[in-house]
UniProtKB/TrEMBL annotation:
Residues 1-432 form the Major facilitator superfamily (MFS) profile domain. One of its GO terms (biological process) is monoatomic anion transport. The gene is LOC107716316. Gene3D superfamilies: MFS general substrate transporter like domains. This is Sialin. PANTHER family: SIALIN, SOLUTE CARRIER FAMILY 17. It comes from Sinocyclocheilus rhinocerous. The chain crosses the membrane at residues 59-79, 86-106, 177-197, 239-262, 282-299, 372-394, 406-427. One of its GO terms (molecular function) is symporter activity.
Length: 443
């Protein structure tokens, strides 16, 4: 539960920008294809409005990922060598501090805001590799799906809370309070993390001896002693790893496109008010959270009770979690003025994406638990690229904010998603790889 709260805070701070940005910039819309009829007075009169064009907005949204990509592989390496607890905690603390500085940077200019977003990304870039490394020491093999999905769905829960709450804060207060409130929550989280969390069961002072013995015994044949030796050549030549890379890249293209631009789509195309925007933008992530949790339970049930091979489970959940979203994303582009149907399809698209949390998303721990943090750092480095270029490409394709332009964005995302699912289905594996059994090869 503590790790769920961790990613709740992480994504709540990350989501501070898209909704306020969508509602406090001047995008120079052409209104021919923008739906009218349910736009209401909403904006706080104290809020600053920035005259940033669509391209600048795209660079601002993507700038976080330019810092985020830099610390992925170093994060995995440092977590393995020194432990994940403080690396993760300090990384998120840096993100929190720069979140608090965001309103000041925005007032100084787009360049300053981009710089702050890059620094945020540098701090947060260690988070997933560090957490994967920590779970390698905590999650028994047959409980990985449900434990990791409970933890990582904190990301979706953070999104569900942050989007509507940001809308309410913008409406009743000032948009700057979005950053101050979530930043304050992040500071409180850091104190709790520092006090309660340990790197491994053997170091934890509050769990029972029975639980400690059970976890450590379940992992004794999977984890290797921590040494400076890392089989980089074997890792980089591993086709199962590249299957995860391709799937992760493909999934994140759609995920980050929606994450950063869904509030803009709701506001500019569907014409929702600031309060409606926040609530409705959160619906897809609420569905994603629920299906990810249910998927984690089902995946472990299939493996433990019905003895279905891990590789079959991972591939099946990846197919459902990537092809399904592609279908409904394309369908959303053809709903015309039926905004209820548009919301329904976008919600179904994102919800089905949650199923992949028990697919490729945790496959690193299946093939190389001792190097899970490093592997995630590698895959997440490639998977960060969509966050860097996806919003820029999407905004360049939607300069007039028309429905046909958004259809192109949805088609591109869907095609990439399907390709990733096919690649992982062909080349993915579910068993410990020979190069990951370190004790056999060292010295």
């Amino acid at each position: 539960m503590g790790r769920l709260c961790t990613f709740h805070v992480k994504y709540a701070t990350k989501l501070c920008l898209p909704l306020p940005k969508a509602l406090h910039t001047s995008p120079r819309l052409k209104t021919g294809f923008v739906l009218q009829g349910h736009i209401f007075s909403s904006m706080s009169q104290q809020a600053s409005v920035y005259d940033w064009d669509s391209e600048t907005q795209g660079w601002i949204l993507g700038s976080f990922f330019y810092g985020y990509i830099l610390t992925q592989i170093p994060g995995g390496y440092l977590a393995r060598k020194y432990g994940a607890k403080w690396l993760f905690g300090i990384g998120i603390l840096c993100t929190v501090i720069f979140t608090l500085l965001t309103p000041v940077a925005a007032d100084l200019g787009a360049g300053y805001l981009i710089a702050v977003r890059v620094l945020e990304g540098i701090g947060e870039g260690v988070s997933y590799p560090a957490m994967h490394a920590m779970w390698a020491s905590w999650a028994p093999p047959l409980e990985r799906s449900r434990l990791l999905t409970i933890s990582y769905t904190g990301a979706q829960l953070g999104t569900v809370v942050a989007l509507p709450l940001s809308g309410q804060i913008c409406f009743y207060l000032d948009w700057t309070y979005v950053f101050y409130i979530f930043g304050a929550v992040g500071l409180h989280w850091f104190v709790l993390w520092a006090y309660f969390v340990s790197n491994s069961p053997s170091l934890h002072k509050r769990i029972s001896e029975d639980e400690k013995t059970y976890i450590m015994a379940s992992l004794k044949n999977e984890l290797s002693p921590t040494t400076d030796y890392i089989p980089w050549t074997s890792i980089l030549k591993s086709l199962p790893l590249w299957a995860i890379v391709v799937a992760h890249f493909s999934y994140n293209w759609t995920f980050y496109t929606l994450l950063t631009l869904l509030p803009t789509y709701m506001n500019d195309i569907l014409g929702f008010s600031i309060q409606q925007n926040g609530m409705l933008s959160a619906l897809p992530y609420l569905g994603c959270w629920l299906l990810a949790l249910l998927g984690g339970q089902l995946a472990d049930l299939l493996r433990e009770k019905y003895l279905i091979r891990t590789v079959i489970v991972r591939k099946a959940f990846t197919i459902v979690g990537m092809v399904g979203p592609a279908v409904f994303l394309v369908a959303a582009g053809y709903t015309g003025c039926n905004y209820v149907l548009a919301i329904a399809f976008l919600t179904l698209s994102s919800s089905l994406g949650g199923v992949s949390a028990s697919g490729f998303n945790i496959n690193h721990l299946d093939i190389a638990p001792s190097y899970a943090g490093i592997l995630l750092g590698i895959t997440n480095s490639f998977a960060t690229i969509p966050g860097m270029v996806g919003p820029v490409i999407a905004r360049s394709l939607t300069k007039s904010n028309t429905i046909p332009e958004w259809q192109i964005v949805f088609y591109i995302s869907a095609a990439i998603n399907i390709f990733g699912a096919v690649f992982f289905t062909i080349f993915g594996k579910g068993t410990l790889q020979p190069w990951a059994v370190q004790r056999i090869h060292i010295r």
